[in-house]
Design goal:
The structure is a homodimer. By secondary structure, the first copy, chain A, is an alpha+beta fold. Chain A has two domains: 143 residues, 60s Ribosomal Protein L30, Chain: A (2-Layer Sandwich), CATH 3.30.1330; 158 residues, PurM-like C-terminal domain (Phosphoribosyl-aminoimidazole Synthetase, Chain A, domain 2), CATH 3.90.650. Helices cover 32% and strands 24% of the residues of chain A. In chain A, the strands form three sheets. A seven-stranded mixed sheet of chain A has the order 9-11-8-12-10-13-14. Chain A has a five-stranded mixed sheet with strand order 1-2-7-5-6, with helices on one face. In chain A, a hairpin with a 5-residue loop joins strand 13 and strand 14. In chain A, helix 3 packs parallel to helix 4 and helix 6 crosses helix 9. At the A-B interface, helix 1, strand 1, strand 2, strand 5 and helix 4 of A face helix 1, strand 1, strand 2, strand 5 and helix 4 of B.
């Protein structure tokens, strides 16, 4: 493990990232919280439980249709908190700026962060700014860490999927990754593909109002829906079946994926939540999702089964099944 | 403000950093916590108060005498929590890695973080890893955010210095900055200058045990002792007098500073704490500092006065006074 050098695919969010994180970070930093491998860590503070998370953002380009690195840095971290059922409260923001970055761009990015924070009802309470010489970073990198409170009794995490659960999603897949990639590569279509980047905490609160019995919530960011479902299947020791014909994909995203030879199941999302919900609550939760602005195209895309533990299969339109593995290699770097 | 580009001195920790933070971040992200401008924000969670802080580390070189970017990232954030009297509990760690970074180096860095966390009795509970293509970052950048609990009744911050307070420090100044700079520039002396990088939470706990009436604690990192004392003078609306003859400086650090034309008052420290303490508690606190391994050379270096508010003066050995301003311009980038 400790030979060789860091490769791009170790930042993909797929299998190589998981191996690096497990072999190096989790082993060396060893503690019960880190080992859980959820979007946020749940820790005890002042007699209650809080959720803690961190993410660095290195997206290229820093402005893309539907957002920029600043709004993304708020949405992404708010979502990691929401995914364990926490109410996001406070964020920190650490900026690494490249000498020569236009102040006007920085101002726009910070204004977007402020707006995203207001919308998500979180406060950015602490910050840090570093500047590195020209050529030592690429324009701007942002780290946001987040803190939220976990209501008593809430128990949501990647380990809790159960056979029989319905797998729900709040809308179309692959929008963020394709918006960033098309912008970066200068690909234009009739309508510009928009990122789905958004804070999901309000949607998740509505879902939990509809049923407190949600087992798993997770946002399929780097590595896409396929990788995230593999994580859940492995953590919970279950199998997951996806229904190909039910996967919601925008026509332009599907077209761009086809053009570039990408599978939308592996393309990053930044405003989507996957939920594993007991069958008897699924209709209620789905209804709550569909009645929310961020869940209009919510639907069931699969189910949890007791067989093929740790694996995800796609039932194709013609009735076959194909294994949907974690992302291997790097589809494209710097998508978030 | 929103014209021009980011300059290196805006990351120096001195006047240019303060102006950028105030004009852009604090104004746009506007909230009561951020406005306090202390090393950590104090926020309400679960009915109690917690301290929250963040710092990104971009030090060059990533290994220096006395530490590396990993140990530094733990020490620095632990210290920011300790400076508001909080007991540090949890850290997050966000890594931005450059493609091609040797895994062996990464392993050493993460092992140093683990060791520093163990020593400081904090847990690293959440993490994130991004990889950017070769040339888009410089080897490794680390962000650590931290959470601590603030004991009830503790009220320590940059606003609370009072005329009559003694200004104490736990040891020699300028060690970290000169250790990094000499390593970077290939300057060698008879004895290699060692960074003072260390977690100060245990020392601070002993100081608070000695007297709960400490007004201000702050670690003089970027911008050095001079800049930190200026911050305190401005936040508290007081003047500060330094006694030149009492400033503890290692001979090799003083020599290196002279050689390079640097003023040690502006050189970064990573294991030092400045304390403003009521005169009647000063002897007790100083004794507690001196009996701790990290405070053997602790001493009083000045006092707080009611005149010259917002300013720091140095009383020279020949009896004159000179104004000690905040750091202007950039002494040298990427020191932490």
């Amino acid at each position: 493990m400790n030979s060789g050098t860091i490769q791009l695919d170790q930042g993909s969010g797929g299998r190589a990232t998981h191996e690096l994180v497990q072999d190096l970070f989790v082993n060396l930093l060893e503690n019960e919280y880190l080992r859980e491998m959820n979007d946020s860590a749940l820790v005890e503070v002042q007699g209650g439980q809080i959720a803690v998370t961190t993410d660095s953002y290195v997206v290229d380009p820093i402005f893309f249709p539907g957002g920029n690195i600043g709004s993304l840095a708020v949405h992404g971290t708010v979502n990691d908190l929401a995914m364990c059922g926490a109410k996001p409260l406070y964020l920190t923001a650490g900026f690494i700026l490249e000498e020569g970055l236009p102040l006007e761009l920085l101002g726009q990015i910070v204004a977007s962060m402020a707006e995203a924070a207001r919308e998500a009802k979180v406060l950015i309470v602490a910050g840090d700014t570093k500047v590195v010489p020209r050529g030592k970073a690429d324009k701007i990198f942002i780290n946001t860490a987040g803190i939220g409170i976990v209501p008593p009794g809430v128990r949501i995490g990647g380990h809790y999927a159960q056979p029989g659960d319905a797998v729900l999603i709040n809308g179309t897949i692959g929008d963020h990754g394709m918006a960033v990639l098309c912008k970066r590569e200068g690909l234009t279509f009739e309508n510009e593909i928009q990122s789905d980047s958004a804070s999901l905490n309000d949607l998740v609160a509505k879902m939990l109002d509809a049923s407190p019995h949600i087992h798993v919530l997770r946002d399929p960011t780097r590595g896409g829906v396929a990788t995230t479902l593999n994580e859940i299947a492995q953590q919970s020791g279950v199998g997951i079946r996806l229904f190909d014909e039910s996967l919601p994909i925008r026509e332009d995203v599907a077209g761009a994926c086809e053009l570039l030879g990408l599978d939308p199941l592996y393309v990053a999302n930044e405003g989507k939540v996957l939920a594993c919900v007991p069958a008897d609550s699924a209709a209620l939760v789905l209804e709550a999702m569909q009645s929310h602005p961020l869940g209009k195209r919510a639907c069931q895309i699969g189910g949890v089964v007791a067989t093929d533990t740790g694996r995800v299969f796609l039932r194709t339109r013609i009735g076959g099944h194909r294994l949907v593995d974690m992302l291997r290699g790097e589809q494209f770097p710097r998508i978030c």
